[in-house]
Design goal:
This protein is α+β, with helices and mostly antiparallel strands. It folds into two domains: about 40 residues, no CATH class; about 160 residues, Metal Binding Protein, Guanine Nucleotide Exchange Factor, Chain A. The protein contains six helices and eleven strands. The strands form three sheets. The chain has a six-stranded antiparallel β-sheet. It has a three-stranded antiparallel β-sheet with strand order 4-3-11, with no helix packed on it. Strands 1-2 form a two-stranded antiparallel ribbon. It is globular, with a radius of gyration of 19 Å.
């Protein structure tokens, strides 16, 4: 039982234990013949890493004003997160609106950036927030641009997504709340073990111009 309590303390913010979280924690344990709770050895550590990141993200959101952000930065985020649909319909293409605001998904292998191999930065197509570097991009064969890590972990947010009878982890832009894609635990094991699977239309690629002839 002490192991279970320790896990609760590690993976959940104090005083913020949801029913889903408790169910998840119990799934990590089983009883032996004497009724003692033992950790399941089959638990994938990358699954735990993702869930831990979600928990940390939820805690960070609750204390965002203690992160050293200026009031203007906090106000800007609040403004973008609270904009009505009409605001985004005016600024996004119909395809971008469907995916970034309504959490759609572009067809596999259809995105303009899937085969992009240029050096540069991938920013949020809705607000310009820098999200991924070309150095983190890799060929996953999935049909969508894939990255093993964001350019800055503070630029994205993770959310549990149980839609379509699946259990996934959604990625959104922290600055404006736009849907980007999902993160999976089947990425390169030699780096992070994660695959940030992103819709091309959610990204605006800024090519690195350094070294280019003037």
């Amino acid at each position: 039982m002490m192991g279970l309590l320790h896990t609760i303390n590690v993976y959940l913010p104090a005083g913020n234990i949801s029913r889903k979280a408790i169910v998840f924690i119990y799934e990590m344990f089983y009883k032996d013949e004497e009724g003692n709770l033992l950790a399941q050895t089959r638990t994938n550590r990358y699954d735990i890493d993702i869930r831990k990141a979600i928990t940390i993200e939820q805690n960070n959101r609750a204390h965002s004003d203690q992160k050293g952000n200026t009031m203007s930065e906090i106000q800007n985020q609040n403004d973008l997160h609270n904009q009505p649909d009409s605001y985004w319909k005016e600024r996004l293409t119909p395809e971008q609106y469907k995916i970034m605001r309504k959490k759609g998904t572009e067809p596999a292998f259809s995105g303009a950036l899937y085969h992009n191999h240029d050096q540069g930065i991938y920013a949020c197509a809705a607000c310009g927030q820098q999200l991924f570097s070309s150095d983190a991009k890799f060929e996953s064969g999935s049909g969508w641009p894939s990255f093993d890590q964001p350019i800055n972990r503070e630029h994205v947010e993770l959310h549990e997504d149980n839609s379509f009878f699946m259990r996934r982890t959604e990625i959104t832009c922290k600055n404006c709340g736009a849907h980007l894609g999902h993160v999976f635990n089947d990425g390169p094991r030699e780096t992070t073990g994660l695959r940030y699977c992103i819709n091309s239309v959610s990204l605006d690629f800024k090519k690195d111009q350094s070294g280019q002839p003037e």
